[in-house]
Amino acid sequence: MTSEAPDSEPTGDIPETTLLLRAIPKALHPYARLARLDRPIGTWLLLFPCWWSLALAAPAPHPDWPLEQFALYAVLFAIGALVMRGAGCTYNDIIDRDFDAQVARTRARPIPSGAVTVKGAVVFLCLQLLLGLGVLITFNGFTIGLGIASLALIFAYPFMKRITHWPQAFLGLTFNWGALLGYAAITNELAMPAYLLYAAGFFWTLGYDTIYAHQDRNDDLIAGIKSLALRLDANTKRWLVGFYGMSLALLATAGHAANLHWAFYVIGALALIQLLWQVLDIHTESPGDCLRKFKSNRLFGWLVLAALIAGQVF
User: Fold this and answer.
1) DSSP per-residue letters across 153-212
2) What whole-number distance in Å separates Cα of residue 178 and Cα of residue 187?
C-alpha cells in the first residue's frame, strides 16, 4: 500500500533565502537559482561518485600519489560537480520551461517565472560549460575524452521524461559518470572496480530519484510527464528495496574487487542502515517527507566515502 503521512502539503521548489543568496548581489539571484546554487544536495549527489572512485582507484598515499595530489583532485572534482550540475540544471530548465510552468513545485523557477530569459539562460549555460571544460582539461587525456562523452547523456536526459516512465534510469547513467572519471583520473584506465561502482551508483540513483519524483505525481499526470513514481505508485517501497539492495551488493562487490580491508564492510553496514531507514520510514503521499528522505542521501554518500577510505587506509 502507498504510505501515508500527516504532512502531505506540496513542497516548494525554491527556498526563500539562503546564506549564499544573502552573500551575492540581488541581480545575480536568478542565475544562482537557475544553477541551483541555493540547493546544494544535487551537487553532493553528483560529487560523491567522483570522490568514491578517487578513493577506490588507489591505496593510501604512496610516492607517486602523495596526499596533496589526492586532495587537489578532490577539490577539482568538487568544482567540476558544482559547475556541471549547474549547467545540467540550466539546460534542463531551458528544455522543460513549458512543463515547469504547469507544475506547482517548479513554476516559480527563473525561466518560467520570467526572471531569466531563454537567451540569457543560453549564454549562462555556455559560460558554465566553458568553466567545466577548464576543470576537465587539468586531467589526463583519457579522462578528458571520457568527460566529453558524458555530454551526450547530459543533453539527452531532459527528453527522457517525455518518452519513458524510466527517466530515473537515464539520470542514473548521467549522474554517476564521475564513478568512471575519478578512477580514470588516477589510473588513466578503467577496470572492474570502477564499472561495479558505476553500476552501484546507478541503482542508488534509481532509488533516491524515484523518491524525489513522488513530490510531483499529480502535476506530472496533468502535464503528461512520465516517471517511476507514476509507474510504480503503490509498489514503490518494494522496488526501493530492490534498487537499494542492488546498489549495496554492487558496492560490496566493488570493494572485494579492489581488495579493500574488512573495515570497508563494517562502515558500509552503517550505509545499509541509512538506506533501510529511508525505505521503512518513507511516506510517499507526503512531498515534504519525500524531500527529506531524498536529501538524506547526502549522509549515505559520506558513509560510503568513509568506508572506502577506511578500506584503503587499513
Assistant:
1) HHHHHHHHHHH-S-HHHHHHHHHTTHHHHHHHHHHSS--HHHHHHHHHHHHHHHHHHHHH
2) 14
Q: Report pLDDT digits (tens) over 241-300.
A: 999 999 999 999 999 999 999 999 999 999 999 999 999 999 999 999 999 999 999 999
First to last CA, the chain: 44
Calpha distance 133→143 (Å, rounded)? 12
Q: What is the dihedral sign for C-alpha 288, 289, 290, 296?
A: positive
Q: 144, 124, 126: which is closest to 135 by C-alpha?
A: 144
Give this prediction's pTM: 0.90
* Domain residue spans of the chain: 19-313
Class of domain 19-313: mainly alpha
Task: Tell me how far apart the alpha carbons of residues 47 and 36 are, in angstroms, rounded to a whole number.
Answer: 15
